[in-house]
Amino acid sequence: MKLPENWSLKTSVHHLEDGIITLSGPALAISGIIAGVDLLTGGHVLQQVSWLALVWAICLVCSYNGAKIATWKRKKIQGSIPATQQMY
């Protein structure tokens, strides 16, 4: 497998971060819908459909990581993170 000439690890990480940020919005909406339905049913949905709890947890983790990465990138762009603490 041959890599393109303009490939770099920094570019790949940037694209991965953008993908996580893009997915975090819909994931937060999905986790909110699952939590809302569970609240309306008195907690019975997550008890009866056990795999839905796993989906809910994955959506929350994706949303949290997306928010964390987005905040880090904003601070990095604004220049408020010292060079010694930058990720790359």
Short description:
The chain has three helices and no strands.
Report on the structure:
The protein has 88 residues and is mostly helical. The chain has a domain at 21-76. Helix content is 75%, strand content 0%. The protein contains three helices and no strands. The protein starts with 8 loop residues before the first helix and ends in a 10-residue tail after the last helix. The mean pLDDT is 82.
The residue fraction in helices comes out at over 70%
Give me the Rg, rounded.
Answer: 18 Å
Query: What structural class should be given to the helix and strand makeup?
Result: mainly alpha
Strand content: under 5%
Shape category: elongated
Count of alpha/pi helices: 3
Question: Low-confidence runs (pLDDT<50, min 5 residues)?
Answer: none
Order of helices and strands: HHH
Q: What is the averaged pLDDT score?
A: 82
Describe the secondary-structure layout.
Elements: H1 9-40, H2 44-48, H3 50-78
Characteristics:
about 90 residues; mainly alpha; 3 helices; about 75% helix; about 0% strand; elongated
